[in-house]
Specification:
Helix content is 62%, strand content 4%. By secondary structure, the protein is mainly α. Among the domains are: 7-82; 137-275, no CATH class; 348-391, no CATH class. The strands form 2 sheets. The chain has a 3-stranded antiparallel beta sheet. A two-stranded antiparallel sheet has the order 3-4. It binds zinc ion. Residues 144-211 form the CTLH domain.
Length: 394
């Protein structure tokens, strides 16, 4: 596989060669025009005949022709090298994995693209895209992401007040909700604590220990139920007030780590998106990145299956493709007999012997077994009945 730098290097070489070739050809043409003019002059003014200068003319044109050919040859050899690099970098095999049978809805794709722009804060582009693609993103969606993006921006500038305000408002909402979601409540409080922590560290960096102590009293104390150890650690850092001292202290240097801000930003994005029932990452980003990871395996598969449909009956690929952890959202179960993933319509069943099979497999075994309703587990000698099998939820 060629690297990106090979591609750029070869492009630059071809482009340079193109320029020098043009220069050579232009100057050769100019020379030729000049020569023809001088021939014309010789015939008109010096009384020479075509016969006199004919031989010279032919030699001259032949020479120019050879120079043209040479320049073209050199340029095309460079151009074909660039072409080869492109082919290696973007194997034409990729076309093989495009399956016409898979119908994608253009409207849904456009909707996802439009929403992506608003998610990323590219409001102008999003609005233009809405108009051109004829899709509409709800005002709620736009407003919710406008708020989240504004707060993310302020966190990037290391200002915590807007994020804190948002956090407190949602803690209040979560508290007043009929059914308190404990996890949600804990996460929001965790975010609030982390924000206060960063503010406290800012005061330490400014060497304002008096203010820092007051800030801790006012804001950190209420988190002592969950974060007492960390609060103790933070209070110890007061002895190292001031950037230089903090930097010199091995124990407290980590408080200056930029990654604390990145973590808080990530936590805010995660909770913020969950509060509005949206995925943390844009579906467009996720599908493109996951697809990109899957391409090499799909190309291999396509060259083996020679254009056959790569899906099984349940709209799933016939093979498993490993994706990074960031793309693992929930556990899945593949039946050890059929190798197919289970679905709500065909759930996994736990047999009394603790082996798990897809419901369809159990039914198939039952339909071919003489001792029905009793059947033998395909993985151990136990005999079971369908009524004793339990649906497993992952
Ligand atoms: Zn068994």
């Amino acid at each position: 596989m060629q690297t990106d730098s090979d591609l750029v290097e070869n492009y630059e070489r071809a482009s340079k060669k193109q320029k020098t070739t043009i220069n050579i050809l232009t100057s050769e043409i100019d020379n030729l025009i000049e020569y023809v003019e001088s021939c014309k002059n010789q015939i008109q003014n010096e009384g020479k005949s075509i016969k006199d200068i004919g031989k010279d003319v032919i030699t001259h044109i032949k020479n120019t022709h050879t120079k043209f050919q040479q320049a073209h040859k050199e340029f095309h050899s460079q151009l074909s090298k660039f072409g080869k690099t492109i082919n290696e970098k973007f194997p034409p095999d990729q076309e093989k994995i495009i399956q016409d049978k898979v119908k994608l809805s253009e409207d849904i794709i456009n909707q996802i693209i439009a929403e992506h722009f608003f998610r990323e804060g590219n409001t102008d582009v999003g609005e233009l895209f809405e108009k051109e693609a004829g899709v509409t993103v709800s005002n709620d969606f736009k407003e919710q992401f406008r708020e989240l993006n504004a707060i993310s921006q302020s966190l990037k500038r290391k200002e915590i007040s807007r994020a804190l305000e948002w956090c407190n408002c949602h803690i209040e909402k979560a508290r007043n909700h009929d059914k308190v979601d404990e996890k949600e409540f804990r996460d929001l409080r965790m975010l609030a604590f982390q924000l206060h922590k960063l503010q406290y560290v800012e005061l330490l960096v400014q060497n304002d220990s008096k203010k820092a102590i007051q800030y801790a009293r006012d804001n950190l104390q209420s988190f002592s139920d969950q974060n007492i150890e960390e609060i103790k650690y933070l209070m110890g850092s007061i002895l190292y007030s001031g950037r230089d001292k903090l930097l010199k202290s091995e124990r407290y240097r980590p408080l200056l780590d930029e990654s604390l801000w990145t973590e808080v930003l990530r936590l805010f994005k995660k909770i913020g998106c969950r509060r509005i029932n949206q995925a943390m990452e844009s579906p467009l980003y996720v599908s493109i990145t996951a697809g990109y990871q899957a391409v090499p395996t799909l190309i291999k598969l396509a060259s083996v299956t020679q254009g056959m449909d790569l899906r099984t009956s349940s709209e799933q690929l016939a093979i498993e493709i490993d994706l990074d952890d960031e793309f693992q959202y929930h556990s899945i179960f593949s039946c050890p007999v059929t190798k197919e993933q289970t679905t709500p319509e065909n759930p996994p069943l736990l047999l009394p012997c603790n082996h798990v099979l897809a419901e369809s497999s159990v039914k198939k075994i039952l339909s071919t077994t003489r001792s029905a309703p009793k059947f033998k587990c395909p993985y151990c000698p136990s005999v079971s009945e369908l009524v004793h099998c339990k649906v497993v939820h992952f």
